[in-house]
Write a structure and sequence with these properties.
Structural class: alpha/beta
CATH topology of the largest domain: Purple Acid Phosphatase, chain A, domain 2
Strand order of the largest sheet: 1-12-2-3-4-5
CATH architecture of the largest domain: 4-Layer Sandwich
CATH superfamily of the largest domain: Metallo-dependent phosphatases
Number of helices: 13
Number of strands: 12
Helix content: 40-55%
């Protein structure tokens, strides 16, 4: 049994307090005209937050996943409510006479937005087809399909039926090569070992390749190594590989590795022995290290991590942390793509973002 992350728990509690207060205050101001109403409202918020925290503990130590699902949905609703109520709070501070009307409208919007987020997360991933053109694409590589997916976050509560459908969708795209952009696992190997054999059914000419994300290091990297070994996925951790003549793949570790005393990202080591005349794919879980990789000759730079924010307010804030937080970008002669991921982390909800599988087709320029 692993030790409980108390520092993380403290950060969660502080964050929850801020989220709750911004949601609680407008409701109290609009509808609670006496102390009794305020007490009932506070009890509701206290109960739901205590339920969320305890459900995470039950999931972590006793593998009671359905409780965690309910708790995480509450967190998602709270996040969406925070975004809407922040606007509501500004309105009622300026126009206090319409507090009840403004807050009533906000509550309806919260219900609609949360429902939409749950539905959007449950539907199949969208397929993004992206043709790429480069002078480095040889006749042998013409039309080669590279599939990118990321952020599966496998855990004991993962729906196996939905996972299998996503893997089937990948196979239906007839990939030549598959890249997993990190955050493949989110619990120790013993909890998710039964998922590994399904990855052996991925059909590809040149193999399945992966880099470790921050969540792999949260779970101890050895758990990730064990899972990928059983799943027959090749790791690229500050290393490179040539799966087919004329195409090179380079992968680096996540910055989280250094924080736990593991091998930090090392672009120089990852590109060691590379032939810069060949088409090169660079994989970094977080959308970082691009200048160094481009200087080394990278033609296609791939990342995940951001989830495109997943739900508000993060959908509006993620761009403050990462320059290339989502989608296709052209950097000089190189292409860069950050995927929103094929699944979610925490709340099974997506608003203003989608689950996706990305298909890159190489063409000679």
């Amino acid at each position: 049994m692993t030790s409980f992350p108390y520092a993380f728990l403290l950060a969660v509690i502080i964050g929850l307090f801020i989220l709750n207060y911004v949601v609680y205050y407008p409701i109290k101001a609009a509808f609670c005209k006496n102390n009794k109403g305020s007490v009932y409202l506070r009890l509701i918020f206290l109960f739901m937050n205590a339920f969320f925290l305890w459900s995470e503990i039950f999931r972590r130590y006793w593998k009671i996943g359905w409780l965690a699902s309910i708790g995480s949905i509450w967190l998602g609703v709270l996040s969406i409510a925070f975004t809407i109520m922040l606007i509501d709070l500004i309105i009622i501070l300026i126009f206090p006479k319409i507090a009840r009307l403004a807050t009533s409208v906000s509550l309806v919007l919260i219900v609609l937005a949360s429902t939409a987020a749950l539905i959007n997360s449950a539907i199949p991933p969208k397929i993004r087809n992206i043709p790429l053109y480069s002078k480095k694409v040889t006749p042998e590589l013409e039309g080669l399909k590279v599939i990118l997916f990321s952020e599966l976050h496998l855990n004991s509560n993962t729906n196996q039926k939905l996972l299998l459908r996503k893997l089937e969708m990948v196979n239906e795209l007839e990939p030549d090569l598959i890249i997993i952009g990190g955050d493949l696992i989110d619990e120790p190997y013993v909890s998710i070992a039964h998922f590994a054999p399904h990855f052996k059914n991925l059909k590809t000419k040149y193999g399945v390749y992966s880099v470790a994300g921050n969540h792999e290091y949260y779970q101890q990297i050895k758990e990730y190594y064990q899972f990928t070994a059983e799943a027959e996925i090749k790791n690229l951790l500050n290393s490179n590989y040539e799966p087919v003549k004329g195409l090179q793949i380079v992968g680096i570790t996540d910055p989280t590795a250094e924080k736990i005393g593991d091998n930090p990202p090392n672009v120089d080591k990852a590109f060691d022995g590379m032939d810069y005349s060949k088409f090169t794919i660079f994989i970094s879980h977080q959308p970082l290290y691009y200048d160094e990789a481009i200087a080394k000759g990278a033609d296609l730079l791939l990342s995940g991590h951001t989830h495109k924010g997943q739900i508000p307010p993060m959908t509006f804030l993620v761009g403050l942390r990462y320059k290339y937080y989502y989608g296709l970008n052209k950097i000089g002669d190189s292409y860069q793509y950050t995927t929103s991921g094929v699944s979610t982390w925490g709340p099974p909800m997506r608003l203003l973002s989608d689950n996706e599988i990305v298909v890159f087709t190489l063409h000679r320029e």
